[in-house]
Structure formats: C-alpha cells, structure tokens
Write a structure and sequence with these properties.
The strands form eight sheets. The protein has a six-stranded antiparallel barrel with strand order 3-4-5-10-7-6. By secondary structure, the chain is α+β, with helices and mostly antiparallel strands. The protein is built from seven helices and 23 strands.
C-alpha cells in the first residue's frame, strides 16, 4: 500500500473517538511552533485635515513634509512651512502567517504630535518595516476614527479618541515571510497557557490515535512525529491534530478587580471550613445653615448665619457565619452568597479568607 493511501484512514483515526466532558479543540488552546504573526511599524503623514493637524512648533512634522515634497521634485524650506492640515503618525500593522504578496491587512494610526483630530485625513504612502529592517508592506488610504472632536471659545466636546484611527485594508503586503511546512518529520504544539497536566493529557490523546507519536518536552511544548505519508501533506495532518479534543487543566485562581468590584472564581477554587463576621459602619454627616435675623423693628443687630450639623452613626451588627468547606465551585458560591454581602465587600472577605489560609486558590488582584 502506498503511503498516501494511508491518509484517509489516519485522519479518521485521529478524528473519531469519544469526546470527554469539558473538552476543547487543540486549536483553541495551542499553536504550532513557527506559525505566528509578525509586527510591522512605520512613520507617515496624514494630510487633508480640516485645521486639526500638528501646530507649527511640531518641528518633525514640518521636516517630514518638506522631505516628502523634495522627493516629489518640489524644494521647500522646512522652517517656512506653516500648515495645519498635516499630522505625523506612527503606523502599525500585523503581518499574518502565510500572507502572500498582494494580501491586504488593516493598519492602525496614532498621532505623534499635537494634532487635535485625524478625522477626514488621508494617510500618505508609508512603508512598514519588521524588526529586521526590511519593508514587508506599504500603507495608504482614508482614515476612519469612529468619533469626532469639536470645540469653540468656551466649550468643547469629544467622542471616542480622535487622535487614533485605522485604515481598514489599507496595508498591502509586498514581501512574504519565508515559511515552509513541507518535508518536516516533527512538529511542536505550543500551549497558550503552559500546564503540565494539560500537556500530559494532550500527549495521551494524540498517542491514543497515533501510537507513541507524541511526547511532552515541557509544560508548554508537545512534540509530535509526522507519519511518513504526511510529510508532503503537512497541512492535512495539522488540521487533524487541531481538531482533536482535550480537557485543559488550570490552577485554582480567584481574580479580583477592585476598581470595578469584579470577582471571578475558577472552577477549581475550594474553601476550607471557616467562620466569618462582617459588619458595616455607616457615618452620615448633614450640614444645614440657619439664618438668624435681628428682632423685628430693632435698630441694632444684624442677620447672621448659624451652621447646624447633624451626625448619625449606624453599625450593622453581624453574627459569626460558618462557611462550610466547599467541594465544588457551586457549593463555594452558595456559601459566599449566604453571607449576603456586596461584590466589593466580598473582595475584602476573600482577602481575609486567603490570609487565614482557608482559601485554596491563588488570589490575583488586577
């Protein structure tokens, strides 16, 4: 039997089989080593602004405009340039893997000077370079900012962020990143969230379909041997690997955002039996001013303002509440809800439980 005739059989062996509960596709939690995007950056000019460009004191904008005009055959003294419809911007884009010459990508523009808005402007042809210094794309086109800015003598209004804009499809790929997937005898699967348990489970799933084809190098890398029949058709093999289902694992973690009062508990979070008492102290201060005029028909005296302060203190009396040990996330949530506190109070309670050693999870504060 020829090697290529093994492909359909091998694909069915990889894709068929029972799917465990909570399983996700490999492509959702991992990537293939070497297949990644690349960042591009460039410096350009935005023209056509309605008086909202960089001011005359922004020297590099005037110098850039003068240099651009000189390349077009127009000699201009940069110190004599006085325009308000031009702005200097940094242009960034992402070169996706396998992008071919002629492919279009979105570009993002960010003002460098003191321009008030990029609304209505057009990006002039700008080369985009990678860290190796080579030009891989060029960008040009009308800018979309998704907002506006307007001002008068005594008031102004701004919607969105008018000094940052985008040119959808404004980048044109000129050079391709070399990436050859043919004739590889191994591929490495990189987990986005490295974990020893997840890596071990991935190895087990692959080896259950391909005997001893995979082994874990570390918590984030699983190396897979490519069958001989797939070395000239690696795309089909990687598609089968990406479609495999695996149950990812993660450390128990509680994520807290104190600014917004958000609390997120991971599935593995557990709490040991603990007693909690949480009281709230409320202090209310009310200031009033009483006007005291002089007696009627009096020839002496004057009207005075007498302050009147009312102070009220309330303290909610709480008893100790026993929170039993939780063996599942649902039990933990029910126990915390039984305390009857707000999300911001829950943040303080969780921090105290962690300090007492009863929270069996990592506490991460954003």
């Amino acid at each position: 039997m020829r090697p290529l005739r093994l492909l359909p059989w091998l694909l069915s062996a990889l894709l068929l089989g029972p799917i465990p509960a909570g399983a996700v596709r490999v492509k959702d939690i991992a990537t293939v080593e070497g297949i990644r995007p690349n960042q591009l950056i460039g410096y350009g000019l935005v023209v056509g602004l309605n008086g909202t460009g960089d001011k005359e004191t922004t020297i590099f904008t005037n110098q850039s405009l003068s240099s651009m005009l000189q390349r077009l055959g127009i000699t201009v003294d940069s110190t004599a340039v006085k325009v308000k419809n031009v702005a200097a911007v940094m242009v960034t884009a992402t070169l996706p893997p396998f992008a071919r010459a002629g492919t279009r990508v979105d570009v993002l523009l960010s003002s460098l000077g003191d321009a008030k808005s990029l609304e209505g402007g057009t990006l002039v042809l700008t080369p985009l370079r990678a860290p190796d210094g080579q030009v891989y794309a060029v960008a040009q086109g009308p800018i979309s900012i998704g907002g506006f800015a307007a001002s008068g003598e005594a008031a102004s209004v701004t919607k969105g962020h008018p000094t940052v804009g985008a040119v959808p499809g404004g980048g044109l790929i000129e050079r391709e990143m070399a990436l050859d997937l043919s004739h590889r005898d191994t591929v490495s699967i990189l987990l986005r969230a490295p974990d020893f348990t997840t890596a071990h489970r991935l190895v087990q799933v692959i080896n259950s379909r391909l005997d001893r084809a995979a082994h874990a190098l570390d918590a984030g890398t699983v190396r897979v041997a490519v069958p001989e029949g797939y070395r000239t058709n690696l795309v089909e093999f990687l598609a089968a690997i990406e479609a495999l289902e695996v149950v990812p694992d993660a450390v128990a973690k509680v994520v807290i955002n104190e600014r917004t009062g958000t609390v997120v508990l991971g599935e593995q979070v557990r709490i040991s039996t603990v007693a909690i008492s949480h009281g709230t102290l409320s202090v209310t201060v009310k200031e009033d001013k009483q006007v005291s005029p002089p007696p009627p028909l009096s020839s002496v005296g004057q009207t005075v303002v007498v302050p009147d302060t009312k102070l009220e203190v309330k303290e909610r009396q709480e008893k100790l509440v026993v929170v039993p040990a939780g063996t599942s996330l649902g039990e933990v949530v029910r126990a915390l809800n039984a305390i009857g506190v707000s999300p911001r109070e829950l943040i303080v309670i969780l921090q105290a439980i962690k300090a007492a050693g009863a929270l069996q999870a990592a506490l991460e504060i954003l």
